[in-house]
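#struct-pred
JK: can someone run the complex with zinc ion? inputs below
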Amino acid sequence: MRACLFARERLVLTDGAGCLPSLEEAKTWGLGEVEWFPIEARGRQGIRGVAALAGAKWTAPPGVTSLGLRSVLSLLAPSEVGLALTAAHLVRGRRTSRFCGVCGTATVSSPLHQARSCPECGHFVFPKISPAVIVQVTRGNEILLGRSRRHPQGSYSVLAGFVDPGESLEDTVRREVEEESGVRVSGIRYFGSQPWPFPDSLMVGFTAICDGDGTLHNHDDELEDVGWFSADALPPVPPRYSIARALIDDFARRRGVDPATIPTWRRPPSTRPNLENQ
Ligand SMILES: [Zn+2]
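RT: done, C-alpha cells with the ligand placed:
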C-alpha cells in the first residue's frame, strides 16, 4: 500500500527515492493533525493507497522532502502517477467541501463514492471534476502549437480549454482553437483522456484537421504565441506523463519521426505553494 501525503499542498516523498512513501513509513513521521482516507486509482493497475492532508505546522523530518505535484510526477514510476493524480484531486475535494452548500452544516466523510455528506440535510458533495478539451490540430506535416505565459521559456504545447455550460466537447474544440489561433477545424476525432488535478480537470483529447489555409490570428490573452511546426523541428514540449505529450508524440510518429528525439521542456523548481499554480 502506498501513501500520498500532502503537506501545505505539496506531495511528500522520501529524499532521493523518487517514489511514494509506504503508509507505515508515513505514519512514523509525527504528523499531528492528519486525516487519512482510502483512495483507489482506477486504471489498468487498480492501485489502492491512502491519501492524507497534514496540518500547516507540519515540517519534514530528515530524509523527507515535499515537492510541487508537477515536479513529483516526473520522478514517479508510471504505475504511481495515477495514484498521485487521484490523491491530489481528492485532497483538494476534501479541502473545498468542508461545509454543506445547501444548509451550511459541516460535512462528514461518506462511505459512498468518495463523497462528503451533510448530517443535517443529507446533501452529498462529490469531488468537483471540470472537463477540458486538448487538441492535436494538423495541417499536412505540421501541428498547431501555442505558447502560454505559464510555460517554460521557449516551450510550446497543443491547445486546450475548459468546456463552457451548454457546449458539447466538439463545440469546445471548435471554439477554443478558433479563439486561440483563428484556425477553423473539422474531422474532430476522440483520442483519449487523462485526469488532470490542476486543480480538478478531466482532459479529453481530440485530433482535428485544419479547415482552410490555417492563417493564424491569436485573439486570446492566454497565449503569447501560436504557430505551425513540422514534425522534425518541434520546440520543447510537455513531459511524457501528460496527454499533451501523447498527442504530440502521436503526430510525430505518424510522420516518421521518433518521439524520443522530441525535446521535453524543463520547468524550474516551483516555490509557489498551491497545487493550482504549479
Ligand atoms: Zn446540509
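RT: quick notes.
Residues 130-277 form a domain with the Nucleoside Triphosphate Pyrophosphohydrolase fold (CATH 3.90.79.10).
The pocket of zinc ion is lined by residues 100, 102-103, 105, 118, 120-121, 123 (CB under 6 Å).
JK: thanks, will look after standup
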